[in-house]
Specification:
heterodimer, A: 317 residues, mainly alpha, 15 helices, flat, disordered N terminus, B: 285 residues
Chain lengths: 317, 285
């Protein structure tokens, strides 16, 4: 048992240099070998289909007319970017992602700050707050669509009825504000995720530093502004980037709450529809590649942040 | 005088603290309210469930659950739940078998340029599902793997492998190298080292990784929706059958949503601390 709790011994970090003896090359491969199954599996299952998607995106190919398939170059891409419906789905994706990430990040920060303090029942409140994130996404979307938003028997209009009596307005939430309806459901699901990440960040602050600042006469706001917020920057960035990566890809909420109608079709839903219902394989692939390009832009940024987190960890070790 | 000066703000701070605690409680209740309401509705008779204003005092019944499990006609959810269980559990096991050696190579015996390899793994997670959907569909169609649960097992394994490698390498980095070196000197080979030394020491981390892979697989909809039909339908796909259902089935919808979410809720509550580490790909501890 003592061995497991003992501090890790210093690692032997002496990779075989160019002057290493010939046997070291074999050893280097031996250390790499355990990686290979996972690496090969990932390349076959994720990278090959993507290459195929890129190839298909250059073809005019409707699955209903397979014989008419022919190479069209970038025509699918210009279709995606010029078709008003498709272009709108690009805009919808951006609006949905930005709104959900920003609002859930701010709410998550407020909740994390509240939960960072000691109070009675803190563990229980934390459990209550995490619950929305643990509901199966389709189930959460069904909950919002049927149980909360429904104009006739939904909880929201029920509450309005309770408060305002018989004359209370009874809006049809999904029809009136479709994108907002999807966003509210997603914000409810993602705020707990942001809270968890930011809470981890808050709890990794050094209490001595804050105590020292307090003794020096800093107020709560000053401590938050000059100590907590800079410390949380990494965690805020990480939450924003991971949230973006997941929400750019969101399919479940759009599919369930509006079925992509009323101007809520985002790119993943459009890709799904283009090939699953319209059988436009080439067009769907081009839209898919565009989703990837958008994600890569976010991802490059994300990798930079995560790598800086890593180097921080390494320098601490 | 001086003591009164310091006592006043301290008292105010205490009231302020209590107020903030109360706010936290309110926020928690507010976020949980929709789920609590859904749970209450699931125990109402259909006629009591779809009322406006909502009825709090209506009598409780298990009819919603009975209907969901097919007693009141309609398709039984058991095959879908079984499919989800198979896809989630088997893919999680596959992930562990592939990720453990990979994480070992990355953390305990650092490979040159190990961060590059880690980044490659992370980047595959950032490849949106829709990027490979069509070729995967065409492949499944041409090989007769459409509506086949094993196709989902393969895809879910690839979906979770990057996260698992990332998480595990941070857990395995805490295994003392001296213990492994000692075993190697004694002539132990890689499988023995992994199963007898590394796995027992990092069991909690491996369990957390498994739990998160399970949750992601259980929740997945897009692949399941496109690649399965009647035979291999998973629980989330079964739930999509309720998308257009009308008020008459509200209790059933609520019961269905809760039953399907139950494994994830249980797993998530059990591993609250590890959840955030897994979801942030091990970057936040």
């Amino acid at each position: 048992m003592t061995a497991t709790t003992a501090p890790a011994a210093p690692r032997a970090v002496s990779p075989p240099g160019p002057t290493a003896p010939p046997g070291s090359r074999l050893r280097a491969w031996a250390t790499r070998a355990p990686l290979l199954p996972a690496l090969i599996f990932m390349i076959v299952v994720t990278q090959l289909p993507f290459v195929a998607t890129v190839v298909i995106s250059f073809f005019n190919w409707n699955a209903l007319y397979p014989k008419a398939r022919h190479f069209t170059g970038f025509a699918n891409y210009s279709d995606v970017l010029t078709d008003p419906d498709l272009r709108k789905s690009v805009l919808t994706t951006v609006l949905l992602t930005v709104a959900v990430v920003l609002v859930s990040l701010v709410l998550g920060l407020v909740l994390a700050l509240l939960l960072d303090r000691r109070f009675k029942g803190r563990g229980f409140v934390r459990t209550l707050l995490i619950a929305p994130f643990l509901l199966v996404p389709v189930a959460a979307a069904l909950l919002w669509k049927h149980v909360l938003y429904n104009p006739e028997y939904g909880l929201f209009n029920g509450l309005l009825h309770w408060v305002g009596g018989g004359g209370a307005p009874q809006p049809d939430w999904v029809s009136n504000t479709p994108l907002l309806a999807v966003e509210a459901a997603l914000i409810w699901q993602w705020t707990p995720f942001m809270m968890l990440i930011l809470l981890a960040g808050l709890q990794s602050r050094s209490p001595e530093l804050i105590e020292a600042a307090r003794i020096d006469g800093a107020g709560s706001w000053q401590i938050f502004r000059h100590l907590t917020l800079p410390h949380l920057r990494r965690y805020l960035e990480l939450g924003a980037l991971l949230g973006s990566i997941y929400i750019v890809q969101n399919f479940d909420a759009v599919f369930t709450i509006t079925s992509g109608g009323l101007g809520t079709a985002n790119l993943p839903y459009t890709v799904y529809q283009a090939f699953y219902q319209a059988h436009e394989n080439g067009l769907a692939s081009a839209a898919g590649v565009l989703v990837v390009i958008g994600t890569i832009i976010i991802a490059t940024f994300a990798l930079r942040v995560v790598s800086s987190l890593f180097s921080e960890e390494a320098s601490r070790a | 005088m001086k003591s009164a000066d310091t006592a006043a703000p301290r008292g105010a701070a205490r009231t302020g603290g209590a107020l903030l605690g109360l706010t936290a409680w309110l926020a928690g209740i507010l976020f949980f309210l929709p789920i609590a309401w859904m749970a209450l509705t699931s125990f109402h008779a259909e006629t009591d469930a779809a009322t406006n204003p909502p009825s709090l005092a209506a009598s409780l019944t298990l009819d919603g659950y009975r209907d969901f499990f097919g007693a009141g006609g309609g398709a039984s959810p058991w095959p879908a739940l079984a499919n989800s269980a198979v896809a989630s559990v088997v893919s999680t096991l596959c992930v562990l078998v592939l990720a453990l050696p990979a994480a070992y190579a990355l953390s305990i015996r650092p490979v040159k340029k190990w961060t590059d390899v880690l980044f490659f793994f992370l980047s595959t997670k950032m490849l949106p599902v829709v990027a490979g959907l069509l070729p995967v569909y065409l492949f499944a169609k041409n090989t007769g793997m459409l509506d086949n649960i094993w196709m989902l097992v393969i895809l879910y394994t690839s979906m979770n492998l990057p996260i698992a490698v990332w998480m595990m390498q941070s857990f395995l980095a805490e295994v003392p190298v001296a213990v492994i070196e000692a075993a190697r000197v004694d002539g132990a080979r890689l499988p023995v080292i992994l199963t007898r030394i590394v796995a027992p020491i990092s069991a909690p981390g491996i369990a957390a990784t498994a739990l998160i892979c399970f949750i992601f697989s259980w929740n997945e909809l897009l692949f399941a929706r496109v690649l399965t039909g009647v035979v291999a339908e998973t629980a989330p796909v079964f739930l999509t059958g309720f998308i257009t259902s009308q008020g008459l089935f509200l209790a059933k919808v609520c019961a269905a949503s809760l039953v399907v979410s139950l494994p994830v809720l249980a797993a998530g509550f059990a591993a609250q601390d590890k959840l955030v580490q897994g979801l942030s790909l091990g970057a936040v501890k």
